[in-house]
Write a structure and sequence with these properties.
This protein is α/β, with parallel strands linked by helices and 385 residues long. 45% of the residues lie in helices and 11% in strands. The protein has a single domain, classed as TIM Barrel (Alpha-Beta Barrel).
């Protein structure tokens, strides 16, 4: 199968990954209403076609947080990425840097930050959750600083884990002890490409950034037990002050879906926010990022940089998010599917597809530069957010 779109990479990932990993990437929480709203609301956002505008010199480059990128896109933090392909986070980071965009490493990535930085020596962003163990937090921040990270994505919409039923059905979580291990092994054996590439030659399968906190244990069940006990439901804006005091780089709060919270983030000294519902993986039934974005962008104005994620499956979707008020977007499932489908080459190809689609969308909406994309690029229909 030759991938000609991000949807094609989803199908490749479905074929190549054991079900417990594919469902982890693909699924949402509860009945997955918000997961589907993310894509449906973007698809329903109508662009405004313009003609005779001289679009012979399209420029996709953009400045975000004082850095210049080839396009206003970053690879979002995705947990367990190193299980989608051999040392997957390193492969994805290399592809991102070759494309001139940043890669953000998840706290629960398989590859530790030092390995990713060594394999992809360009700019790396780091993502962190609020954990009860403040010593672990300090150590994580110090490691990110030592690796040269200057941008921290701090996830604020995970005081506790959402009810992701697909993970129970697939066997990723729920089945105790050896029974769960055997179920996952059985799935892996039925996917020989993955078993050879990742299962046998992609070790170690430890979650590198939190492995010391797991006491040397490396299994998925150990991780879920640890995260369930250590996510901090008591987090408040005072904890953002605590992070701000200990992190000397730029601070971006990920998981903002309400305009009042966006203003509070600006008041707390954040440099940016990500308008996000965690890809529909946390509170099901909330609005899509596309629906939330315009009011949030209007509420904060130029006080901070507004990014967005959720449901982006094409370059047209990137242009739609920018028109709705984002300065840049994060891709999550898109790069995870591409990585699972064809490793780092898949991520590089996916980004090339995205770039071509953005160029066409900009040309046909009469936008030469990223800065030209605005609410004026949308057709004023009732269906638009």
């Amino acid at each position: 199968m030759i991938a000609a779109s991000i949807s094609d990479y989803r199908e490749l990932a479905r074929r190549r990954l054991p079900p417990f990993l594919f469902e982890y990437i693909d699924g949402g929480s509860y009945a997955e209403q918000t997961l589907h709203r993310n894509t449906a609301d973007l698809a329903a956002t109508a662009l405004r076609q313009r003609v005779l505008r001289d679009v012979s010199a399209i420029d996709l480059s953009a400045d975000l947080f004082g850095s210049h990128y080839a396009m206003p896109v970053a690879l979002a933090p995705v947990g367990l990425g190193g299980l989608f392909a051999r040392r997957g986070e390193v492969q994805a980071a290399r592809a991102a840097q070759a494309a001139g965009i940043p890669f953000c490493l998840s706290t629960v990535g398989v590859c530790p930050i030092a390995e990713v930085k060594a394999g992809a020596p360009g700019e790396i962003w780091f993502q962190l959750y609020m954990i009860r163990d403040r010593a672990f937090m300090v150590t994580s921040l110090d490691q990110a600083t030592a690796a040269g990270c200057t941008k921290l994505l701090f996830t604020v919409d995970l005081p506790m884990l959402g009810a992701r039923y697909r993970d129970y059905h697939s066997g990723l979580v729920g089945a105790p002890g050896a029974r769960g291990d055997l179920r996952r092994l059985g799935q892996a054996l039925l996917h020989p490409h993955w078993m050879w590439d990742v299962g046998m030659h992609g070790r170690p399968h430890t979650l590198g950034n939190i492995w010391p906190a797991l006491g040397g244990k490396a299994g998925l069940k150990d991780f879920f037990r640890w995260s369930g006990a250590n996510l901090d439901p008591a987090i408040t804006w005072r904890d953002i002050d605590w992070i701000r005091q200990r992190w000397k780089g730029q601070l971006i709060l990920k998981g903002i879906l309400d305009a009042e919270d966006a203003v509070a983030a600006a008041d707390a000294g954040a440099d940016g926010i990500v308008v996000s519902n965690h890809g529909g993986r946390q509170l099901d039934g909330v609005i899509s990022a596309a629906r939330a974005l315009p009011a949030i962008a209007e509420a904060v104005g130029d006080r901070l940089t507004v990014l967005a994620d959720g449901g982006i499956r094409s370059g047209l979707d990137v242009v739609r998010m920018l028109a709705l008020g984002a300065r840049g977007v994060l891709l999550g499932r898109a790069w995870a599917f591409a990585l699972a489908g064809n490793g780092g080459a898949g991520v590089a190809h996916m980004l090339a597809l995205l770039r071509a689609e953005m160029s066409i969308a900009m040309a046909l909406t009469g936008c030469v530069k990223i800065q030209d994309i605005s609410r004026n690029s949308l057709q004023p229909l009732d269906g638009n957010p």
